[in-house]
Amino acid sequence: DSGVTQTPKHLITATGQRVTLRCSPRSGDLSVYWYQQSLDQGLQFLIQYYNGEERAKGNILERFSAQQFPDLHSELNLSSLELGDSALYFCASGTGRNHNEQFFGPGTRLTVL
Amino acid sequence: GENVEQHPSTLSVQEGDSAVIKCTYSDSASNYFPWYKQELGKGPQLIIDIRSNVGEKKDQRIAVTLNKTAKHFSLHITETQPEDSAVYFCAASIGSGGSNYKLTFGKGTLLTVNP
Fold this sequence. Notes:
The structure holds two protein chains of two kinds. Chain A is an all-beta fold. Chain A has no helices and eleven strands. Chain A has strands at 5-7, 10-13, 19-24, 31-38, 42-50, 53-57, 64-68, 74-78, 87-94, 103-104, 108-112. The model of chain A has no long low-confidence stretch (mean pLDDT 94). Chain B has strands at residues 4-7, 10-14, 19-25, 32-38, 45-51, 56-59, 62-67, 72-77, 86-93, 103-105, 109-114. The model of chain B has no long low-confidence stretch (mean pLDDT 93). Chain B is globular and about 45 Å long. Chain B is mainly beta. Chain A binds chain B through residues 2, 4, 30-31, 33, 35, 42-45, 48, 50, 55-56, 58, 90, 92, 94, 96-107, and chain B through 32, 34, 36, 42-46, 49, 51, 89, 91, 93, 95, 97-108.
């Protein structure tokens, strides 16, 4: 158990809908990273937050957004969902202080029908 | 941006044999190289990592080597066991000093250890 929690574990929704994925980092970790895992694209970095502020953006679509709250949990919002958004979404956390280790949560499997 | 290539994509070994997975990276500024093990239905688990100021690191049956000049790094698993069967990912990261340590991953290697 990495100490990172993600909810829900599974999410099934329809095209055009909006969903919110939640992540709680390990105790003491200030950085939260979101990654998408799909068969064709592999594991891809989406976005990073550090202590409530956005620090880096990767291949994140404009339909996707995220935020980190004062209690350091993070939410990833996916809107106008398309079939191609079906994937595993992972959250990872790290201290973010001259320290690169990232610890991954169990993931949320999103299925868009 | 950074690009990480990983080989082989699948690897099958007999229990007790060694397994080697190799990765190359493109950005010479990368300075942190972790390896993750992902079992079916689970998130990636950090198993070992190496930083650019070190050439080799070992943890029991697992070792990682780094060649900065050639920009490649490898994972070595000795005395493999059936429970080592999983997908292994290498990754590279540039520590920018601004708390941004995004990981760029290889495509993964499916390791199967046959009893």
